[in-house]
Design goal:
heterodimer; A: 155 residues; alpha+beta; Alpha-Beta Plaits; two-stranded antiparallel ribbon; two-stranded antiparallel sheet; 8 strands; B: 422 residues; alpha/beta; FAD/NAD(P)-binding domain; Enolase-like, domain 1; 5-stranded parallel sheet; 10 helices; globular; disordered C terminus
């Protein structure tokens, strides 16, 4: 059974520990601007929303890549950027309709969530269970996927 | 079932793979006219700066990929298509029969009607062969004139400047990337390039190129001339539609296709740069000539060739992303605005940051950005999902950088809809 990140904005307090954990795990520094998961702030509603790649089955980023630098991780189902192959053309960053592939000017490559290979540091760091790593069927992922599918084809 | 795909670019390769996946028993043949393995023209700039080797441009990295997929690759040029007999003729006389045919022959650079355009030392930048020629000349100190500062011109611009060449850009229109950027953004890109040592002449035409000893002299309509060791021509591309000449298949600028990517002949489909497909924003047929559209076309055409479920689409969103010497720009959909629509704009000229959003009612229909690298794809998502922004439209009018918040608040269980979507 594949697992997925379950994001529950109503439980998020905006502490940003997920961003710190992600940045440290993947970039070796405590720098939220390098995090692959982002917490968005809604002052008017008094809410926070953590958001990152849903590893959608459409995989817009993967298909848009002209050099096969984004591949499916057979173990976790995540769509991973192979840094050595990525040329930094950024087409995936405009192709992903969720805005979850970002260009990193320091490395000249793109970065996105890869579920930390199956042990997502953000979920581990989240003190309020706003981010959990659970069976994919339970995450509302299907709803997001339906939304994704809707954006390109209509039967 | 015999599927034949003409063209080994992204549209053709993705189509061939999709056909293989959908119909494991079908015969899939991919015909390309260049000697190399299927490769991506988009990767050529990175080859020019030696960031990658030629293999790095290949669409599929595993050398056995097409054999493993049982996709037969044929090197050749298609001379004609006989829709009645359902067969194509290759140069040299061989015929290939098909049940369903995909034309994905791409596009090629146009050669402007200028005296001297055929001189040695004048080249386009389109194929791996072109790239090898350019890499051999674009050395530190070499004088290079780049004709055309459109999307492709600007992609090469970065590579040429990085190679250390002394670069002069000549663009006919009044701003850089005129078909992707408005005046504000196009001129900011020009300022950026000039501040980094690239000479840019906009509203200027090359009138002729002549030999000047071992070098070239590029004459401009301003009356001045630029000395050059090489001239790179990037004045636009046009679809390779000649392949369907005489077949009766309908063309305008490109090959006309319906929402299933079918041409006027029911057994022939077209995809990618050669196809004049439905534009999501206008509903009209237009040639987009961009990578994501090529891939979408290829997948959709293949599904319909395999007769799966009559897959149709609502059209492709035109979009582009460009890196001009480190200044990243992007544009989406109706970036120039919609009739009766309104817009939000934020500009920081000193920091080269710019965002422009175009709305129709409370739906985002187009966008332009400079210096935006985080969450930029959500602009596509908002446009293509036609998300009703409601209160968030007013918030975006106030602060157009809050695109991600607008998207999340409109589609996820946060804020005002937290209790609506379960």
């Amino acid at each position: 059974m594949l697992k997925a990140l379950q994001l529950e904005p109503e439980k998020c307090t905006g502490c940003l520990q997920c961003e710190m954990a992600c940045s440290y795990e993947n970039e070796g520094v405590f720098n939220p601007s390098k995090s692959r998961i982002k917490v968005f702030t809604f002052h008017d509603e008094g809410r926070f929303a953590p958001y990152t790649c849903s590893q959608c089955s459409e995989a817009w980023c993967l298909h848009a890549c002209p050099v096969e630098a984004i591949v499916v991780n057979e173990k976790t189902g995540s769509k991973d950027v192979i840094e050595d192959i990525c040329v930094g053309c950024k087409v995936c960053t405009i192709a992903c309709p969720f805005g979850t592939v970002n260009y990193n000017a320091d490395s000249g490559k793109v970065i996105k969530c890869d579920l930390c290979g199956g042990e997502p540091a953000c979920a581990e760091a989240c003190p309020t269970d706003a981010i959990t790593y659970v069976d994919a069927d339970h995450t509302g992922l299907e709803r997001m996927r339906a939304h994704a599918a809707q954006t390109v084809s209509k039967s | 079932m015999q599927h034949v795909v003409i063209g080994a670019g992204p549209a053709g390769v993705v189509a061939a793979e999709t056909l293989r996946k959908t119909q494991p028993e079908a015969v899939v043949t991919l015909i390309g006219d260049e000697p190399e393995a299927p490769y991506s023209r988009m990767a050529i700039p990175y080859l020019l700066v030696k960031q990658i080797a030629e293999q790095g441009t290949y669409l599929r990295k595993n050398p056995e990929h097409f054999r493993d997929q049982k996709i037969a690759i044929v090197q050749g040029r298609v001379a004609s298509i006989d829709c009645k007999a359902r067969q194509i003729a290759l140069d040299g006389g061989n015929a290939v029969a098909y049940d369903k045919l995909l034309v994905a022959t791409g596009s090629r650079p146009v050669s402007p009607p200028i005296e001297g355009i055929d001189l040695p030392g004048v080249t386009s930048c389109w194929t791996l062969a072109d790239a090898r020629r350019i890499a051999a000349t674009a050395k530190p100190g070499a004088r290079v004139v780049l004709m055309g500062a459109g999307f492709i011109g600007c992609i090469i611009l970065e590579a040429l400047a990085k190679s250390g060449a002394e670069l002069t850009v000549v663009e006919m229109e009044g701003r850089m990337v005129p078909r992707m950027m408005n005046d504000t953004a196009g001129n900011l890109i020009k300022d950026w390039c000039e501040s980094r040592g690239v000479k840019v002449h906009t509203s200027t035409q090359v009138t002729s190129i002549e030999k000047n000893g071992a070098a070239l002299r590029v004459n401009l309509n301003s009356g001045s001339a630029v000395e050059a060791d090489m001239v790179v021509s990037a004045t636009g591309v046009k679809p390779n539609i000649e392949v369907v000449e005489g077949s009766g298949i309908k063309c305008e600028h490109g090959i006309l296709v319906d929402r299933m990517m079918r041409t006027s002949d029911e057994n022939v489909f077209a995809a990618g740069d050669v196809a004049q497909g439905i534009d999501f924003s206008t509903g009209d047929n237009s040639v987009q000539a961009i990578q994501p559209t090529a891939v979408d076309h290829g997948q959709l055409a293949a599904r319909n060739m395999a007769g799966s479920q009559g897959a149709t689409h609502r059209g492709c969103v035109n979009m582009n992303v460009l890196d001009t010497l480190g200044l990243i720009s992007s544009s989406f959909g109706l970036w120039m605005g919609a009739d009766g629509g309104d817009s939000a704009e934020l500009l920081n000229r000193e920091r080269f940051r710019y965002i422009n959003l175009q709305f129709q009612d409370d739906v985002l229909v187009g966008a332009t950005s400079l210096g935006l690298t985080q969450h930029v794809g959500v602009l596509r998502g908002l446009i293509q999902s036609k998300t009703r922004l409601k209160v968030w439209k007013d918030r975006l009018l106030e602060d157009p950088t809050r695109i991600m918040e607008a998207y999340l608040a409109s589609t996820q269980a946060v804020g005002f809809n937290a209790r609506i979507i379960k």
